[in-house]
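Support reply, case 0932

Customer input (verbatim):
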Amino acid sequence: MTRPLGGELQQELVQLLHLRVAGASVLEPSALECLQLALHALLADEPNLQLVRGLRKRLESRLADRLHPLRLSAILRTDSPSIQVMLGLMCSLLLTLPVLIGSELLRLRGGFRLFGHLEAHLMVSVVLAGILGSTTSILVRIRDFDQANPAQPTSKVMMGFTKPLVGAAFALFGLLLFKSQALPIFKPLDEGSLQEHCFFLALSFVLGFSERLAQDLISQVEGRFESTGKAIHAPAPPDVSTGSGESPKG
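Our regenerated output:
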């Protein structure tokens, strides 16, 4: 470039040079290449000021995220799969606050029984135990998300958001399943006893933690219902009697 730079171009050049110095040891190679591209676009015979400004703002944002990774904006723009999963998980856990408040209000008002039998407080406790189990499952294998196949950030966030909801649904399913004795694996416990409450809380935690166990239970219930349905709709066996009380001759 042979002609002198104007005021706006000089200002952009100063900011780009400052970015190159500040981000030399912080920015990744792709960002440094983007910075070099912005310098070439600025020093060209026909500078593209709009392109330079766009690249510079992106680089400034990237540098700020690298220098201050705990800022909310940096967390929202992170490319770390584990942080993306945790972000979705935190959003999901915020939904449990109304559940906790509603449960406490029901308890203070003397309780409530669904269909006249199931205690609402027990159901809420079971749901929270399932959410706790699924949250623990995510935290135990949080490092595995960074080593897994790359996926879109939205899918990672949704994974962290939906897993506690799935854990809550499985926990509620477990409560209804064993209360109804549709799958009589365990002996019924005394209703309302401490042993029963501890059993359902532990079961809900395990179902939230292990989706495989919950799916196995669903498969067993499905198979039981299918076998019962086949037995009901099976044709009656043929009547081998002759009507006269005599056995048929061979």
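We compared this against your earlier run and they match. Two observations from our side: Strands lie at 113-114, 118-119. The chain has eleven helices and two strands. Please reopen the case if you see a mismatch on your end.
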